[in-house]
């Protein structure tokens, strides 16, 4: 068995690998960039090595720095996690050439599966069905001809792609060339390879994958399947094992195809063979093979009782698999959701900040890369943690997951927690009626605001309710933030609560609460520290209240919101500034890197026109104008790092012409 391991990754997967190291008595070495020097994985490791500045290309994507860190720390082996260099065969070879052990499949297997084109060819040779399509796309002048042979609608995919990048669905010929150019540019930027595949688009697809595990003695087993159909922008949101409503014959066919492919390339580690299942015809097609540990591996661990990271480490050490296919069983059902630092109200824009309060769920597994005090930077993927619920059947697992999401507290960064709560409560989800179009088909239900007492009202009640009868509220120490008995309103308490760009006024007078022009008859009492019982409309509901300084987070039911208590003077100052009529412009909605600038001073722009492209958390975001204007100044350049709220493009006053703009 290995004695020392370097984890060439960050965040929750680095923490996950470290947990297996502890169980096996292996010394775990972390690496970190300047942005991650205080990250959780660094704090939990036995040793940690700085590998460079925040930019991934100078740290987590630098094979030279990672190998040097392994040598300097005395590590025997390197585990790549997922993402970054985990499927880079050249990195795997460099690790081996440096005299280190690579915890993953042999480089030749990685190389053969890295290209979707080559993987399709091998699958076809082995008799494994693939989606009808063509990779004859190098010549852009033939795109229309190739697309016509495939038929519309079709899907464009990057041959070297992953993580949803380089993928476009094209409904008709008129949209083909723009979509193909965009997909090629995105693929070249993300993977250094713009090769494309045109495939038949399946109308109602399910994404099913088979977990495989091999060793260096020729043994290979499957660990059953996972359902990964619920996706947004081709990135998985929810995963589960086993897949619901799958016939036994379909399962066995997928298992057989996965093992056939693995044996053909002498696969010797953990990996995943992905398939697309046509929900209408029942046909299944090979998609690709991921030659690494998957984000969603915990659901397989829950239903099999295995530690996949530990098995990877044993295989890399040269040990044979301690498993026989006939001994493996599925125990119940497990469902995982990915908790991201994204704002669903802003089209899932990435969020940054510092986590000032964090309380994990009591009855679910949590694989997390953050803790209280963690900073969420803009340089990397938005994934913060994964919640995994396991039950004896799918219905029980769903119930556990719903309760786990409701009880989780994470304050300081906007996340997808409430969105995930709504998702797992949908009847269609509970019934297992899934496809990759699930989020699109249920968008209206997920966007609906459930009828509930506004979170600002609950926050006002929490701020005004004493912890013990006849004693002052614990928030009285906020002093000038709390406005009591103002002129003309004796007995009224007012709170100004800031959330995002808006400030809400909550007024309380006995049992009467006013907020947003509405009146509510509500009362509250502290049921326990941090737990507020609120009675409204004859019903009493519990809310988790988390507080620090002038910040407060409210969580209860499907409602979750965070506020900052602000002084009246600050509110009035903002109103005066707004009345001054500041010049309009395009600002960065979140921190990131400028990937493109598409305008120059003097240009006329129209509503909806893209003026710049911002790269944040590994995704490209188009920044558009809200109305017709003339560009005054371009205040950014390609490659520049920008902060949230920073003005990138300013517009000339409405009475100026392009000739007078400077």
Provide the descriptors you would attach to this structure in a database record.
alpha+beta; Rossmann fold; Dna Ligase, domain 1; D-amino Acid Aminotransferase, Chain A, domain 1; 8-stranded antiparallel barrel; disordered C terminus
Low-confidence stretches: 468-472, 474-490, 579-583, 656-662
Q: What kind of assembly state do the chains in view correspond to?
A: single chain
CATH class of the largest domain: Alpha Beta
Give me the secondary-structure category.
alpha+beta
Radius of gyration (CA) equals 27 Å
- Using the alpha-carbon principal axes, give the shape: globular
CATH hierarchy: architecture of the largest domain:
2-Layer Sandwich
Q: How far apart lie the N and C ends?
A: 68 Å
Describe what this molecule looks like in 3D.
This protein has 662 residues and is of the alpha+beta class. It folds into five domains: 4-103, Rossmann fold (3-Layer(aba) Sandwich), CATH 3.40.50.20; 132-200, ATP-grasp fold, A domain (Dna Ligase, domain 1), CATH 3.30.1490; 205-447, D-amino Acid Aminotransferase, Chain A, domain 1 (2-Layer Sandwich), CATH 3.30.470.20; 455-574, Glycoprotein, Type 4 Pilin (2-Layer Sandwich); 583-651, OB fold (Dihydrolipoamide Acetyltransferase, E2P), CATH 2.40.50. Helices cover 26% and strands 32% of the residues. The chain has 18 helices and 42 strands. The strands form eleven sheets. The chain has an eight-stranded antiparallel β-barrel with strand order 27-28-29-30-31-32-33-34. A five-stranded parallel sheet has the order 3-2-1-4-5. A four-stranded antiparallel sheet has the order 6-9-7-8, covered by helices on one side. Helix 12 packs antiparallel against helix 13 (417-425). The longest helix has 17 residues, at 248-264. It is globular, with a radius of gyration of 27 Å. The model is unreliable at 468-472, 474-490, 579-583 and 656-662 (pLDDT under 50).
